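Project standup — Tuesday

K.O.: blocked on the structure for the chain from last sprint. Re-posting the sequence here as requested.
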Amino acid sequence: MKTRPHSSWRPFLPTRMFIFVAGLLLLCLRTFGQISVDKPSGNRQQAGEDYENVVNLEIGAAANWNIKGGAATFAPNLAAETTLIERWVELEAGVSPFFTRKSTEWDTDLLFKKPWTLSRKAEFMLGIGPQWTCLKQNGKTANSIAGEVAGDFMFWPIGKHRFGWFLEPAYGYSFAGGHQQSLGISGGLLIGIPGPHRNGR
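H.V.: unblocked you, prediction finished:
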């Protein structure tokens, strides 16, 4: 996750965030499965490959800073990305847990991204979407909603897009009182999960 604006909203259980993200990913996978595998992907067609990834997993770390001041915070980061409209819309859902001595915070975001193929080994995506934050502190739970804009640089060292790395800077703006703003960045390992092979291969 890339940004973590704070404010209060109505409390809810953190497990609902996991259910929310998992449901969206399953819906995307089901939609992808209904697309004919005979229709070539623009990116993969340029690369001369006979497959495309169903999901790209992002596993790494995230850091963020409040624009108005404060120390940087760090957390592990897990996200999954899939295609909604070939060459036009990608959907990414991710989560990051931030732990301190006095609080626990779960940041969940949902980004709609426009992809561009820079080369056979590099891609860039620009995304926008909502971010949902659940903060537990001093026995109380507070929630907030923010808007997020992120750029996603994806690098694939080898021709087959199976393993690579990503770097994703982002900006967040809270819709709650105070309208806090924050900057963040995440990066790490990129894992491509392939779909069915074409032509029966």
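K.O.: great, moving the ticket to review. The chain has one domain: 15-35+54-200. Confidence is low (pLDDT under 50) at residues 4-15, 31-50.
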